[in-house]
Amino acid sequence: MNSIYSSTFTIHSTPAATSLTPSNTILDSGQYEVYKVVISGGTGPFTDNLIYVSGPSGATVNGVLPGNVVESLTGQSSGTLTFTSFNSFSTNGLYTSML
To answer: Quick check: helix, strand or coil at residue 37?
Structure first.
């Protein structure tokens, strides 16, 4: 006798992250950075990760190397999200982040 298995699943639309905006584009020593991003579409809750992409050779942000998560926000829905303040840049230079 053969068995037949069936399952049902739902596919939700993909959320969009726009307007990743830093609070400062130029920081002096000791200043803090805050990032805001607008999430729209999709069906939450979401986990949003701020990722350190690149910086000066060997530099870290909050102790992490490029390609790693600086901060995560879990259980989020659509709207404006805020990644809290941090000022732990290991050296002077240009840094790039993404969501």
So the answer is: strand
Q: What is the mean pLDDT of residues 92-99?
A: 88
Average pLDDT, the chain: 86
A 10 A CB-CB count for 69 gives 13
1 in a domain, yes or no? no
Find where tokens 């303040």 sit: 85
pLDDT: is 28 or 1 the higher one? 28
Report the domain count for the chain.
1
Q: Is residue 35 part of a domain?
A: yes
Residue 38 falls within a domain, yes or no? yes
